Amino acid sequence: MRPPSQVQSIAPRLQHCIADVASWCGSRRLQLNAAETELMWFGSTASLRSLSQSRRTVVIGSDILQPVESVRNLGVHLDSKLSMQTHVAKVTQTCFFQLRRLRQIPRLLGRDVTANVVAALVLTRLDYGNALIAGLPYWTIAPLERVINTATRLVYGLRLRDHVTDATIKLHWLPICARIQYKLCLLVHRALIGQSPSYVAELLQPVTARHPSLRSANSNALLVPRTSLKFG
Question: Which of 88, 104, 187, 217 could lock 208 by a disulfide, CB 3.0 to 4.6 Å apart?
């Protein structure tokens, strides 16, 4: 992460890079569409506030790109502060929309079929890209937990004040924190057995690589990188 004082030198370099991309596209009879190009600065609240509006913009030819607060990449919504609140809100909104559409299904298809339909249309959206929200405070991901509770009530026909813990266990549906942890464990396992891309496997380093004399070196433990900031 660069300090805000370096933005003045970074912006021209970014403009030259985009100009090179536009030139490459033009040489192959392609056109870089500035209207479909989005710009976003990542940083803390204090860092973004210190940037003036003129320093945030980037020029592409005759067009001036204004920064946005969030962008969507491969179905994941990234906000400028990397709080992932926008992504959680979008996923929650989509899931509740699907649950409202499925409100009449239980009486027509039965409990088992309804559970399979809900898992396919709702739970898969909770699991997609959820490794990116690992480590967030619970109040940020709490709306996703409410989605699971609402889905359980839909399948079992429970009322709003009824407890859903026993019903969720019967459905074998994990709570949101456990779903995220399961996804991380699955990604690490596949990386260790060679079923993931090399750029993912290279991020995992065993303790023996740096500290062969430690007691944990014989437990196949992995190094956890230390960070000085929670941002990103």
Answer: 217
Q: Are 223 and 216 in contact (CB under 8 A)?
A: no
For residue 182, what pLDDT is reported? 94
Instruction: State the Cα–Cα distance between residues 25 and 15, nearest whole angstrom.
Output: 15
Q: Evaluate if pTM is beyond 0.70.
A: yes
Locate 108 and state its tokens.
């027509």
Q: Read off the tokens for 219.
A: 């437990």
Q: Domain coordinates of the chain in residue numbers?
A: 4-68, 76-182
Running DSSP on this structure, what letter comes out for residue 77? E
pLDDT of residue 210: 65
Q: Average pLDDT of each block of 10 consecutive residues along the chain (232 residues)?
A: 68 82 87 80 80 74 80 90 91 96 88 94 94 90 96 92 92 94 91 86 76 62 69 46
Tokens for 200? 């993912």
For residues 169 and 54, give the distance between their C-alpha atoms in angstroms, rounded to a whole number: 54
Are 143 and 176 in contact by the 8 Å Cβ rule? The answer is no
Residues recorded for the chain: 232
Residue type, 194: G
Half-sphere exposure of 21 (CA within 13 A, CB side): 11
Q: Which residues pair with 76 in a beta bridge?
A: 73
